[in-house]
Structures are given as C-alpha cells and as structure tokens.
Amino acid sequence: MSRKARLWLLAVGGIGVAVLLACAAFDLPGFGGTSHPYGERAVRSALARHTANVISSVNFDQRAFDTLGEESILFAAVLGTVVLLRETRDEHSEPPETVRVDPHVRRYALIALPVTLLIGLYIIAHGQLSPGGGFQGGVIVATALHLLYIAIDYKALERIRPAAAYAIADAAGEAAYVLLGTAGLLAGSVFLANFLPYGTFNTLSSGGTVPLLNAAIGVEVAGATVVLLARFLDQALEIEGGGTGGTGRQDEEANRS
Amino acid sequence: MADLLVVLALTLVVAAATAAVLTRDPARQALVLALLGLALAVLFTALQSPDVALSQLAVGSALTPLMLLLTVRKVRGRGHRGGRKRGRA
C-alpha cells in the first residue's frame, strides 16, 4: 500500500473514532448533575450491608469478582517481571558499593519510614470505613520500606526485606481471596458471597467479608510491590554482565554448538 | 468555588502532562511524571474521589517514577560498566 493510501486509511479511521466518541459524549449526563442512578444504587446497597466506605463495598462485595480479576492481573504481571528480570547464566551478582548518604536525607527518611508504614497499615485496616483500602495501603507499606534504601543503603533494605518471604505473602494473599470466595460458595449461595454477619455500622468489624477480602488484597499488593521493586533494584544495583542487546545470548549459542 | 478548584486542578494536569511529554531526558521525565501524579491526585480529590486519589498518589507519584529511575540507572550503567569490563578482558 502506498504512503498516500495509508494516510487516507488512517484519516478515515481517525475520523470514524472521533465521530463515535463525540456521539457517545453527547449522550452522557451533564457534568456534576444531581442524578446518579448507579451511585444511588451502590450507596443503598453498601449501607444495607453496613459498609461505610461505599467504594470498598463495590470493590469487595458488589463487584468482588472484578477485583479478583484485577488482583490476578497484578499477580501475573509481577510473576512475569520476576521471570524476565532474573539473573541469567551470563550475568553475575556483585554487592553494591556503599554510598555516603547526606545526613539530612538520612534523618528525614528515618523519620518518614515509621510514619509512612503506619499510614499504610492504617489505610489497609480501615478500608471498609474510610477512603483507601488494601490496594492503596499495600503500595504505601511497600514503598515505605524502601525509605530504608534511601536512608542507609541496599544492604540494610535487603536485611529487613527477604524477598522470598514477600513472594510467599503475595501468593498467600491471592490464595486467601479465592479461598474466601469459595467459603462464600460453600456457606452461602455463590462464589464471593458476603456470608458473614454484617456487624455494627462504622466499626472495624463491619461489612461481613469486606474487611477480610480487603486484608487479603493488602497482603497481596504489599508482597507484589516489594517483589516487583526487589527485582528492579537487583537489576539496577547488583546484577552485572550479560552485555548489551543480544551479544550474551549469541555467545551462549556459539558455545553450545 | 468547587468548580474553580476543578478548573485549577485540570490546568495543572494539562501543564504537567505537556511538560512530561516535552521532557526528553528519562530521569527528568520520571520526576515530571511524579508531579503529574500529584496534579492528578489533586484533581481526583477536587472531584470527591479520595480513593482514586490515594491510588494515584501511591502508584503514579512514588512507584512508577521509582521503577523508571531504576531502569534508567540499569540501562546507563550497563553500557558504561560492561564496556569497561570488556576493555579489561
């Protein structure tokens, strides 16, 4: 196909998408209006199940199956990263050199670490009550641990962060979600049914299975994020060799033949 | 008043996003991306969705820039150190 024909094809396709998008946008309700049909139903349903944070009720109760899909995407993505960023045969690991840290940075990071960690754990624990939940809190907990790398060095971080343990936590969180869903199937009616008593509204134990599923996600996301960053940090700081592009692989092939 | 806040946040997002596209150095781009994440978090808070704002803040302003910076370090360090090693051998 000539360059001109390709440009025409692109123009027709682009205009088609633009027209469809414009038509769809004209059918949307006005910005900031008073009518929210989906929102009203979600709020009513969340209140009926004693879950103060409606978003968590949607994520872990009304649409719990969607969350299982999202959680599995993260799980699979991290698994893929672990496989891709592993130490290959032509690479070797060298302990990173110790770097002098500016005392101000060190002081700030060491003060921020426990505070951030606490905020992350609070956000996980109160997912059913206030904004946030397992996902947000999990990422905050995982990134908080990495302040130790900024404050001291990678060796200090590796000491408090055995990546294998966090990989197990990642898998355990994922498994706990599926098992809780199966428990709903056995005890109640359907997979991921909210089969536990709803409890008193606006207390930590309210919402039935919501706090449990939320905690499972918290463990999974914290584990997944730590493992993900561990693989990136290993590659950036410890793993050397392998050459650029495909040279290492070509050498290997030459050796084999 | 609330609308003014939304307009301000939107302007901030557009400015940060344009800056992120126009920055060519990946290390600086990671920093601008963190600022874009912050601007988006402000926008989501102004639109009364603190849940999304928290996700945006944790992932967009901390996790993604960190991963980008580590990747930049790896890619730059590889050519540098690898070259030296091969020279010695």
TrEMBL record, chain A:
- TM ranges: 72-88, 108-129, 135-154, 175-196, 208-230
Cell membrane: present as a keyword of the record? yes
Keyword Transmembrane attached: yes
Q: How does the record classify its membrane topology?
A: Multi-pass membrane protein
Give the highest taxon in the source lineage: Bacteria
Tell me which UniProt keywords the record has, alphabetically: Cell membrane, Membrane, Transmembrane, Transmembrane helix
Residues annotated as domain Na+/H+ antiporter MnhB subunit-related protein? 106-226
Name the GO cellular-component terms: plasma membrane
Locations listed in the record: Cell membrane
What family name appears in the similarity comment?
Answer: Belongs to the CPA3 antiporters (TC 2.A.63) subunit B family.
**What PANTHER family does the record tag this protein with?**
NA(+)/H(+) ANTIPORTER SUBUNIT B, NA(+)_H(+) ANTIPORTER SUBUNIT B
Its protein name is Sodium:proton antiporter
Q: Name its species.
A: Streptomyces sp. NBC_00119
TrEMBL record, chain B:
Give the record's membrane topology: Multi-pass membrane protein
Q: Which residues cross the membrane?
A: 29-47, 54-72
Annotated protein name in UniProt: DUF4040 domain-containing protein
User: Where is the protein situated, by its record's location annotation?
Assistant: Cell membrane
Transmembrane helix in keyword set: yes
Q: Which GO terms describe its cellular component?
A: plasma membrane
Keyword annotations from UniProtKB, A to Z: Cell membrane, Membrane, Transmembrane, Transmembrane helix
Q: Would you say which domain of life the source belongs to?
A: Bacteria
Native source organism of the sequence: Streptomyces sp. NBC_00119
Q: Which Pfam families match?
A: MbhD
